[in-house]
Amino acid sequence: MTPRQKKFCHEYLLCEDASEAAHRAGYQNPEQAGERLMGEREVQEYLEEIAVADLFEVRAFLTRALRGGGSMAERIKAADMLLKCGISQKTEPVVIFGEGDLQ
């Protein structure tokens, strides 16, 4: 696999949209590229290989970063990335900052 194909796979795990993943990976015609890539056996095998661990690891890492002692900018970036991982699609509210964090 090419580095761009791997980037596509990792982006696809985050957004679950082939066209958006192809766009994020730098393909010129993301809709066509996304559809083509999703039809490739090698891409499907790589997605299966990395899907469970990588998405879980990404969410776990971002959650630690969000709750950690980093700067406010780092924590906001982690929150944004977590939302892109699909947390915003859940129905329960997500509390990101306590009152003390906003001072």
In short:
The protein is built from 5 helices and no strands. With 103 residues, the chain is mostly helical. Helix 1 crosses helix 4 and helix 2 packs across helix 3.
Walk me through the structure:
By secondary structure, the protein is mainly α. It has one domain (3-102). It has helices spanning 3-15, 18-25, 30-38, 41-67, 72-84. The radius of gyration is 16 Å and the shape is elongated. Residues 88-103 have low confidence and may be disordered.
- Principal-axes geometry comes out as elongated
Cα-based radius of gyration, to the nearest Å: 16 Å
Tally of strands? 0
Structural domains: how many: 1
Structural class: mainly alpha
Low-confidence segments: 88-103
Helix content: 55-70%
- Count of helical regions: 5
The termini sit apart by 47 Å
- Series of H and E elements: HHHHH
Strand content: under 5%
Would you tell me the overall average pLDDT?
79
Major pleated sheet? none
Q: What is the secondary structure topology, with strand pairs?
A:
Layout (H helix, E strand, L loop, with lengths): L2 H13 L2 H8 L4 H9 L2 H27 L4 H13 L19
Helix pairs in contact: 1-2, 1-4, 2-3, 4-5
Task: Pick out its properties.
single chain, 103 residues, mainly alpha, 5 helices, 68% helix, disordered C terminus
